[in-house]
Amino acid sequence: MTGTERFLCADAARIRGDSIVGTAPHGVVWVLIEYRGGWPANGFDGLELEPVTKALVFSAAQAVRARVLLVRRHGRRRPEGPRCWAVLRHEGSGAYRQQWGTWSGDEDLAEIVEALGAPGELGLPPVVLVCAHGQHDTCCAVRGRPVGRALSERWPNLVWECTHVGGDRFAANVVVAPDGVYYGDLDARSSVATVQEHLAGRIHAEHLRGYTDLFPPQQAAVAAVIGHFGPAGRHDYVVAGTSRDGDHWRIRITGPPPRPMAFEVDVEAYRTPPYQLTCHGPAMSSAVVHKVTSIRIG
Questions:
Q1: What is the residue range of 208's domain?
Q2: Average of pLDDT values for 206-222?
Q3: Is residue 246 part of a domain?
Q4: pLDDT by residue (tens digit) across 185-198?
Q5: pLDDT tens figures, 281-295
Q6: What are the DSSP calls for the chain, one per residue?
Q7: How many structural domains does the chain have?
Q8: Residue 139's domain is classified under what CATH number?
């Protein structure tokens, strides 16, 4: 690389052939706050909001390990009137719950605290989040915004651009919530096909980073089964058992007919050599990769 070339972490990851499998951050609760102005590099933490309200929202979200994301419609459209907020929750039963509200003044955001403790509403359509947080990482803007445009043209009421979701080098990243499904390495064309299949109840292994209610080796195991036997619904496969011996994992997965009813999946974890993993992070870091070594029916 010459001194005039700009380092882009997503380009570098593709050249290296970095695996996206098993890279979805763990979590089952999301707080979305529509913010139409510029996003600070650290997202919600960097907003200049009324301090007491901000502290209440932060502590309530932290108590349930919720991820707080700023969102906006593609193109930074600035419609008149109140802005939206939402609490999205993926329950252990597989139920998806959402609660939405609006805010005009900072103090209105205190309603999020109550919503985090409320059951929420069932039956609402999922939210499609596209990371386009250029202040956090250049690739999120360069790759995320074309995806945000393409998806917004297709599903204008479901799609929001959002702040950092993790895995900058896998941009463009899309999260479907409260389903809790991460996709990466997307472009405008592949994102529309991927989301269309997802909304039809068919999750494909290609571009799948993982399910956020599972841990990385479990995510890798489920993705491998989907890749081997074809697309599946979000809850078609269930992790029925997990055992570990050092860097080796054995994951038992059950699935519905007509697929075989159970699988034993062996997963090996290892660290890569140190690389620059983000556009703005000059420090070299290694990443953990989860590689499936075998799938057995039984």
A1: 9-213
A2: 97
A3: no
A4: 999 999 999 999 99
A5: 778 899 999 999 999
A6: --TTSPP-HHHHHHHHT---TT-PPP-SEEEEEE--SPPPTTGGGG----HHHHHHHHHHHHHTTPEEEEEE-GGG---SSPEEEEEEEE-TTS-EEEEEEEESSGGGGGHHHHHHTS--BSSPPPEEEEE--TTT-HHHHHHHHHHHHHHHHH-TTTEEEES--S-GGGPSPEEEETTTEEE-S--HHHHHHHHHHHHTT-B-STTEEEETTS-HHHHHHHHHHHHHH--B-TTSSEEEEEEEETTEEEEEEE--TTS-SEEEEEEEEEEPPPB--SSS--S-B--EEEEEEEEEE-
A7: 1
A8: 3.40.30.10
183 exposure class (CB count in 10 Å sphere: 0-12, 13-18, 19+): buried
4 within domain boundaries: no
Structure-token pair, residue 215:
């841990």
Residue 13 lies inside a defined structural domain of this protein: yes
Q: For residue 132, tell me if it sits in a domain.
A: yes
